Amino acid sequence: MFSKILIANRGEIACRVMRTARRMGVRTVAVYSDADARSLHVAEADEAVRIGAAPVGESYLRGDRIIQAALDTGAEAIHPGYGFLSENPSFVDQVTAAGLVFIGPSAPAIRAMGLKDAAKRLMEKAGVPVVPGYHGDGQALVLLAGKAREIGYPVLIKARAGGGGKGMRRVDHADDFAEALAGAKREAKAAFGDDAVLIEKYVEKPRHIEVQVFGDNHGGAVHLFERDCSAQRRHQKVIEEAPAPGMTEAMRAAMTEAAVTAAKAIGYSGAGTIEFIVDASDGLRPDRFWFMEMNTRLQVEHPVTEMVTGIDLVEWQLRIAAGEPLPRRQDEIRLSGHAFEARLYAEDASRGFLPATGTLHHLAFPPRAPEGAAIRIETGVRQGDAISPYYDPMIAKLVVHGKDRPAALAALSSALAQTEVAGSTVNTAFLAALATDPDFAAGDVDTGLIGRKQEALTALPAPDDAVISIAALAAAGADASPPSADPWSGIASYAHFHPVGRRVRMHRDGGAVIARVLPQGGGRYAVHLDNDARLELRTGTDGLVEGRPVARWPGHVTVFDGPVGHTFVVPDPLARADEATAGGDSLRAPMPGLVKIVRAAAGDRVEKGQALLVLEAMKMEHTISAPHDGTVASIVAEGAQVTDGTVLVTFAEENASG
Ligand code: ADP
Ligand code: ADP
Ligand code: MG
User: Fold this and answer.
1) Where in the chain is the domain with CATH 3.30.470.20?
2) Which ligand is nearest to the CA of 447?
3) Is CATH 2.40.50.100 what the domain over 585-651 is classified as, yes or no?
4) Which residue's alpha carbon is nearest to atom 1 within ligand 2?
5) Residues forming CATH 3.30.1490.20 domain(s) in the chain
6) Measured distance CA(560)–CA(565) in Å, rounded
7) Cα distances (Å, whole numbers) of residue 603 to 393, 597, 623, 627, 630
8) What local confidence, expressed as pLDDT, does residue 578 receive?
9) Which of 409, 489, 374, 56 is closest to 228 using CA atoms?
10) Ligand 2 centroid from CA 215, angstroms
11) Ligand nearest 209 Cα, by number?
């Protein structure tokens, strides 16, 4: 076994790899960018080396600096995690040339699977069923449009170098093909530096079922059963599980056999995932699954497989890279119970899953799983850390295990209800809504489920009077004060007796909330709301008000109601309202990014929902649409680099006659 390894990644996956290394007595070296100097993965490593500035091109993608760091620290091997350099065969060549071991497959194996078109041709030859479509080299619009017509709509345009759902467009009608192709190519070029695409038949009632495989350097290959990742938004996984609901023995046998065949066809070594698309319109049928792609790395969702097999996949990766044979034979690998993983992201689900940034002023994970279940939190952040625009906005993965699917799902819901994040917009409530959706709970999931129910799943419940009253109490500063003789003593800047209590003004989604807080003594307060509601509340010494967790952070109060965090803006009366002038009728950038396309001009009359511009951020394109009918007064220039909150569009004043 190695005595020291370098982890060429950041965030939760770097921490995850280090945990196993530590358990195995292997020392760890972290690498970090300037943005990550004080991050968790640096703190957890035995040593850490700075590799450059925050942008990934200057740090985590700098293979040369990473290899130098490994040589300088005496690490013998490099674990790439996922993303970044994990599927880059030239990096593997450089690692090997430097006399180091790459913890992953060989460069030729990655090359064989790196481009989706070439991988499909290879799999076809090996006798693995592939999705019908066009995966040739020709890229002319007429050729591709002709192929799409031959294949038959709906079709899916995919970047051959794609990953993470980027550079992908579903097209339903020939009329939309050219524009969708241009969009897919733009996104692919920006994300992967390669704009070649393939075209696939869009599979009906698609389910994404993938098989975990492992190969060693002695010709061995096994599978570790399947994962179902059909709960997706914009082709990105949201909740994954193992085993796949409704899986039959015949289907499992066919899929795992095809997966092992695929791995053997390229002499695969290490951890890999064969992704299949399944047509579930007639249940799970062994003649209705097709190879989609192979991910030649550890997958984000590998923990669900660990939960149901009891195998540490990172340990296997290290053993195999060190030359050991596969630790178990196929018949020694068993499935037990059911596991889910939910990806907790800083994003605004109700605004098309826009990635968010911010400082995690308050962060609390579920302290324990329900009786009989197990929970595991995979994270790379702590309270106080920032979610920056530079990297993936994932905060944590909540992984649960139960004796069967209902037990595991109950554990997931319970975990989400005990997750508290304040300081950034998060998708906790959306994940919880999905976990309790009747179709999802019944295991009737396909990749379109979230899209069909998006509005309901992402709708945020309005806070009830109790939540508003608790927020008002916290805004008044009363929540943290221990019960005392002078009920106002704990409240900063409020020293006078006030017969009508303290007036609190807060904002929520543009609307003002006014409340009056009256101390009753003994940690009890009466709160009067402007809707005439009147509640009596009791504060505890545990930071909870009426048993609900509350987070106070600069300028805000967040009250947690199960998985929903209700955030109120508490204006600082001393701060100047300089925002007000630009706060009128304008559209602001929801996140930092590049204005890729501008579709309207000053003076244009636009309709509600009309696309005004395309913002590229986090390597994805986000369409910014008109919030209402109106006339554009000004619009940002194409090519502009904007920050969070930059005014993109202003609308002309509408007069009553016009
Ligand atoms: P898939 O590639 O099938 O979507 P995953 O959902 O496991 O598989 O991963 C999403 C994609 O985004 C992958 O290409 C992965 O390498 C990349 N990715 C995910 N998280 C990160 C991250 N934190 N940093 C860099 N890349 C990431
Ligand atoms: P990526 O590398 O971005 O992960 P994939 O080829 O794995 O790209 O596809 C991502 C997702 O897109 C799949 O999980 C699935 O939901 C959907 N998808 C891919 N191919 C098809 C298809 N032919 N028909 C229907 N959905 C598909
Ligand atoms: Mg994929």
Assistant:
1) 105-130+205-336, 343-460
2) 2
3) yes
4) 163
5) 132-201
6) 4
7) 37, 18, 20, 16, 10
8) 35
9) 409
10) 24
11) 2
The span from the CA of 291 to the CA of 129, in Å, is 6
Q: What is the mean pLDDT of residues 11-31?
A: 98
Decide: 47 and 31 in contact? Cβ < 8 Å: no
Instruction: Tell which CATH architecture fits domain 343-460.
Output: 2-Layer Sandwich (3.30)
Q: How far is CA 84 from the centre of its chain?
A: 16
Provide CB contacts within 8 A for 214, sequence distance 6+: 221, 222, 223, 224, 270, 271, 272, 313, 316, 320, 326
Which pLDDT score is estimated for 590?
72
**pLDDT at residue 180 in the model:** 97
Q: With contact defined as beta carbons under 8 Å apart, do 357 and 346 qualify?
A: yes
CA of 338 to the centre of ligand 2 (A): 24
How does residue 481 score in pLDDT terms, banded at 50, 70 and 90? very low
For ligand 2, the distance from its centroid to the CA atom of residue 510, given in whole angstroms, is: 38
% of residues, the chain, pLDDT over 90: 76
What number does the ligand 1 atom closest to the CA of 83 have? 16
CATH number for the domain formed by residue range(s) 465-569: 3.30.700
Residue nearest to atom 23 of ligand 1 (CA): 392
**Of 547, 497, 502, which is closest to residue 525 (Cα–Cα)?**
502
Which position has the higher pLDDT, 414 or 482?
414
What pLDDT shows up at residue 497? Answer: 39
The single-letter DSSP state of residue 331 is G
- Residue 15 Cα to chain centre, angstroms: 17
pLDDT in tens, 578-632: 333 333 477 888 777 789 899 999 999 999 888 899 888 766 677 888 878 889 9
Class level of CATH domain 132-201: alpha beta
pTM of the entire predicted model: 0.86
- Residue whose CA is closest, atom 19 of ligand 1? 83
Ligand 2 center–CA 90 separation, angstroms: 26
Q: How far is the CA of 157 from the centre of ligand 2 (A)?
A: 10
Residue 274: predicted pLDDT:
98
pLDDT digits (tens, 9 = 90+) for 489-501: 444 434 343 556 7
DSSP H or E segment with residue 41: helix 40-44
Instruction: Looking at the CA of residue 166, tell me the nearest atom of ligand 2.
Output: 3
**CA of 12, closest atom in ligand 1:** 23
pLDDT in tens, 232-270: 998 899 999 999 999 999 999 999 999 999 999 999 999
More confident residue, 285 or 547: 285
CA 425, 344, 396 angle in degrees (round to 5)?
A: 115
SS3 455: helix
For residue 439, give the 3-state DSSP assignment. helix
> Using one digit for the tens of pLDDT, what is the confidence trace for 562-580?
999 999 988 765 443 333 3
Question: Is residue 83 over pLDDT 90?
Answer: yes
Class of 105-130+205-336 per CATH?
A: alpha beta
Is 297 known to be catalytic? Answer: yes
Catalytic residue chosen out of the listed positions 16, 288, 297, 552: 297
Q: Alpha-carbon distance 526 to 518, whole Å?
A: 5
Q: Which CATH architecture has domain 4-103?
A: 3-Layer(aba) Sandwich (3.40)
Pocket residues for ligand 2 (CB within 6 Å)?
Answer: 131, 156, 158, 162-165, 200-203, 206, 208, 232, 235, 275, 277, 292-293, 447
Q: What average pLDDT does the structure give for the chain?
A: 91
- Residues 6 or more apart in contact with residue 456 via CB below 8 angstroms: 433
